[in-house]
Amino acid sequence: MAAQRQPDLEALDAWWRAANYLAVGxxxxxxxxxxxxxxxxxxxxxxxxxHWGSSPGQAFIWAHAxxxxxxxxxxxxxxxGPGHGAPGVLGPTYLDGSYSAIYPDKSQDTAxxxxxxxxFSFPGHIGSHCTPETxxxxxxxxxxxxxxxxACGAVFDNPELVALACVxxxxxxxxxxxTSWHINKFLNPASDGAVLPVLHLNGxxxxxxxxxxxxxxxxLESLLVGYGWQPLFVEGSEPMAMHAAMxxxxxxxxxxxxxxxxxxxxxxxxxxxxxxxxxxxxxxxSPKGWTGPKELHxxxxxxxxxxx
Length: 308
Hints:
Layout lengths: L8 H20 L26 H18 L2 E6 L6 H9 L2 H5 L7 H10 L27 H9 L5 E8 L6 H6 L13 E8 L15 H10 L2 E7 L3 H31 L9 E7 L9 E2 L2 E2 L8
Parallel strand pairs: 1-2, 2-3, 3-5, 4-5
Antiparallel strand pairs: 6-7
Helix pairs in contact: 1-2, 1-3, 1-5, 1-9, 2-3, 2-9
């Protein structure tokens, strides 16, 4: 077997930083999209909607999903659970060209970028969730709690698909999401695809700490194992160390999914009962508002609810 190619972490980081810039631009800017001139008040939207807090984490997940799709030739879709988290998803669709392909006026030049920024949460344009106008969207993150259910529905009778579902830790406190950790009991690894949840623990919801982020790691791991998952943890804040950890975790997750599929399909072919597996999942613990300003006017921003 050929040695697995090592990921280009510098390229991943550059792509991620570009996606983060796009998220900030969507939330704040209605003009001067590349900051080609000094920022003035009229360049800023009068009302800011959409959440920066979860956007860097979602773009981080997306960047690493892109890599494993190419590396392993996967069929994969991304479902965004966190509410108002569309900047973390729309940025990647603009970077990869799919947004401009559907909406040619949002072209990949300065004028198109300006229109792309201004339309976000702007009167008469698009909302701050992954609304139906989002290319490829099958799930709107604004109604919290259904991302795992929709991911599970997407992979039924679709045996090669991996549905990567980002679960916000605020979202995880809703009844529907807390119940839907049990979806792994409904997946048949011989005939269905796989759901790969990523529990994004950034620690805070709108103005309060989140419950799961406050659990000791061992207790959280026991909870998820009890639900029937095999969790992999990616934790930290230093970008390059996190890229290395996430790349390793994603590779392990895909290898586990492929092994589960092989075993189940061999069992089916041989006429044996299919053993229900412990599916893998990721827990991404990163600061809320990651890579943004640490503080403003002496008030903490990154890693706190104010970055929401």
